[in-house]
Write a structure and sequence with these properties.
This protein has one domain: Arc Repressor Mutant, subunit A (Orthogonal Bundle). The protein is 43% helix and 6% strand. It has helices at residues 7-31, 38-46, 54-60, 65-77, 99-115, 124-137, and strands at residues 52-53, 81-85, 93-97. It has a three-stranded antiparallel sheet. The chain is globular. The N and C termini lie far apart (40 Å).
Length: 198
């Protein structure tokens, strides 16, 4: 049986998967000294726009609430988040970053930026735009635990949002990403699920 897939598309796909593995390895190495995982950073990033209940946070970062709960338990034990019952609905938990969590997130952002390849010949904006097209065109996974995540920009307090929305309410593909030169880096976390890197 012959494949209709364009050889350029096949080779590009292989390069994307290889790049994702390399980026994830660099991120893991950068985050390990901080005692953080990619899953933890994704959850902390999801809270960077303000407190959310667990279900809304899970929806914002596109992961199952049960899977997220395990990550949040570890973050809470480390003092990086708090979970409190909401007065209006005692079944709902409000999840919020603490000062410790915010400091951990800032350290993680810097560690990730430091791990980006420092090559002036990389066309970050072109790479970002092409990868964004690829992600939009890729069919949704049947596994709802998979997170198509690109992090918010790594400049705390400077994230721009569309009119009337909070950072946590936007699609992950709308979140800008930047390196230390202001160009887009490889997407943190790739297409791997939160449950794969707890």
């Amino acid at each position: 049986m012959t494949s209709n897939l364009d050889p350029d598309a096949r080779n590009s796909y292989r390069l994307i998967t290889l790049a994702a593995r390399l980026v994830q390895r660099r991120q893991d190495e950068a985050l390990a000294p901080l005692g953080l995982t990619r899953a933890a950073v994704i959850a902390l990033e999801g809270l960077s726009g303000g407190p959310l209940n667990q279900e809304r946070l899970a929806d914002a970062i596109r992961v199952q609430s049960q899977t997220l709960g395990r990550v949040l338990t570890r973050l809470e034990a480390a003092g990086q988040i708090t979970r409190t019952r909401q007065a209006s609905d005692r079944r709902q938990l409000k999840v919020e970053l603490t000062e410790v969590g915010l400091a951990a997130l800032e350290a993680a952002r810097q560690a990730e930026v430091d791990a980006y390849p420092d090559d002036p010949d990389i066309g970050w904006s072109v790479l970002r735009d092409e990868l964004a097209k690829f992600i939009r065109a890729a069919p949704a996974s049947r596994n709802s635990g998979v997170v198509p995540f690109a992090p918010p920009q790594h400049r705390a307090g400077h994230e721009r949002t569309p009119h009337g929305t909070q950072p946590s309410e936007r699609s992950s593909r709308d979140r800008p990403v930047h390196d230390r030169k202001g160009h887009g880096p490889p997407a943190a976390g790739g297409l791997h699920g939160l449950d794969q890197s707890q």
